[in-house]
Amino acid sequence: MIMKINTTISLTAVLILAGSIPALARANEASQRAGEQNVPEGTRIFRDLAYVPDGHERQKLDLYLPEQNNSDGPLPLIVWVHGGAWLSGSKENCPSVRFLRQGYAAASINYRLSQHAIFPAQIEDCKAAIRYLRANAEKYNIDPNRIGVWGASAGGHLVALLGTSGDVKEFDKGPNLHVSSRVQAVCDFFGPTDLTKMSVFESSMDHDAPDSPESKLVGGPVQENKEACKRANPITYVSKDDPPFLICHGDKDMLVPHNQSVLLNDALKSAGVSVKFHTVKGGGHGFRDPEVDRMVQEFFDKHLKESETNPSK
């Protein structure tokens, strides 16, 4: 479905915060309203593109293309992956539409939640969405070699996995297997990494509990399913050929401990991956910070516009 929206743009990215289901619902509604306000006039919007034909109702994405002249070349793409503790959230929130006026395309994906299927269904869906966008790059005037991903909380976890598992074929399931699911830049906002260590650090919830979001993701209590947690850990797959990362995390985050990003940053650095780790002083699980907005803009500009990227295939 294609549509155009005439409205004004706001430069503030809206984040989905993991927490209670009522809080998530309120955040999602607010995010949807803010997201629509961010869409500039003339934007072409393709709703509910099925990246898995005849698949689950959640296996769909929205694509936003800026108004272009015919002479414009293929666009770099920023794909948003929503948060919500892997059990809530929606593609309706797309903070990356803020980049449309800077010459980017934007996309936002849904994926199966933990009540639909346990891990690795979530990363399989994210990879299928990337492959769909790459396979249809010419149709939508997207540059298949300039795809970045951005996510917060559970979405941060999934974009980090997209970044580190580009060479992990076991997560590539479904259609369009003739193209790669690799991405060229990763922006991770306070995503979990090592699920078995989340309760080691100060937190407002018991991540080891049988009904915790992490336990629901892997199909049982995390401390009794350490191999499944290792499989879900982006750090497991870190290698020197991973794309550049920008990691942002508040040092007062009481849901996903700040140390989760410390662990990922250390692993990426040890492997020789380009990574910038920014700690938001006093920041909780979600923040509005002009400095972070600037960092995100500069990061994607550097790695998707100014630099040569690795081949996608």
Model description:
The structure is a single chain. The chain has 313 residues and is an alpha/beta fold. It has one domain (2-306): 3-Layer(aba) Sandwich (Rossmann fold), CATH 3.40.50.1820. The protein is built from eight helices and nine strands. It has a nine-stranded mixed beta sheet, sandwiched between helices. The chain is globular, with a radius of gyration of 18 Å. It starts with a strand and ends in a 7-residue tail after the last helix. 52% of the residues are buried. The model is unreliable at 1-34 (pLDDT under 50).
- The secondary-structure element order is EHEEEEHHEHEHHEHEH
**N-to-C span:** 29 Å
The CATH topology is what? Rossmann fold
What's the CATH first level? Answer: Alpha Beta
How would you sum up the major sheet?
9 strands, mixed
Average predicted local confidence, pLDDT: 88
Approximate strand percentage = 15-25%
Strand order of the largest sheet: 1-2-3-5-4-6-7-8-9
State the total count of DSSP E strands.
9
Shape descriptor = globular
State the secondary-structure class: alpha/beta
Q: What is the C-alpha radius of gyration, as a whole number of Å?
A: 18 Å
Number of helices: 8
Q: At CATH's second level, what is the architecture?
A: 3-Layer(aba) Sandwich
Give the full name of the CATH homologous superfamily.
Answer: Alpha/Beta hydrolase fold, catalytic domain
Helicity level: 25-40%
Give the total of domains: 1
- Contiguous low-pLDDT stretches (5 residues minimum) are 1-34
